[in-house]
Amino acid sequence: MTALIGLLLLGLLLSTAVPRLLARARWAEREPVLALLVWQCLVVAVLMCCALGLVLAASAALPELRALLFAGAPHGVEAAYGLQDAEGWGRLCAVVLAAGALQTVLALTREVRTAKATRARRLDQLTVRAPELPASIASARSRGERLVVLENVRPEAWSLPGPDSRLVVTTGALQQLTDRELAAVLSHERGHVRARHHWLQQFARALASGFPGAAVFRAFRDQVEELVELAADDRAARRHGRHTTALALAELNLDRGVFGACPPGLAQSPKRVDRLLAGRPRLTAAHRLRLTVVALCAPAAVVLLAAAPGIGSLF
Q: Global pTM?
């Protein structure tokens, strides 16, 4: 049972203390893509703790499953896990962890269905407001994201990801932005589509909605929502300049009052503009490598902890 207890304690540590440290990390704004990787490794490690814990707990509760799990294992490996005399605790842990796994699957399914329905609805609205070209003309269009222009005096730009992705801008944006600013805005939205940010956002939202009491999943959702915007900002800034990207962001949000008193959901825009104008340098390659290795160590540590009793019995 030591491996099961260790996995549960490690999962508790990773889901409580580590998210607080990451949320306060100052380097995340300078390296949003790396920060996304670190958060994903953390969440994957927590989920692995639960999944491997479920396997061990179910093996303790069900002798048939335990025999199947350790079939072909060297002598002494099964005994090293101490699951034979822990059927009671195994049943309790298995029920709790299985309920969590079921909740995760249901939350992911619900989020995917909601995202598909939302995309279909927005696609229908686009089709009505901006009809498709005839097939003879559309067949000659270039490969990649399709650009759609909507008649609207309000300057806006957004992307509709998916198999046939679209970049949407309004006539208000065309009139208000310069050519370079418009190119930066499109590069930002193209960054969201090509990096599949919507997949990561759906996963984070599903975990947060499925487990509202888990601070790690709430923090993961909040950080993903912020970091994907910073990553797209950086993509646009590398291609069109930080000042141009900052001006484009300011122009699009100026009429919404986000640079004064505004709701929390819009308060991120002035921070993004300030970040672009500040132009803080990236971390050194060595620093980025160290952070990457540390992030990958989290899921690796879970696997090693789960395998430790079996490996120790061989020596």
A: 0.87
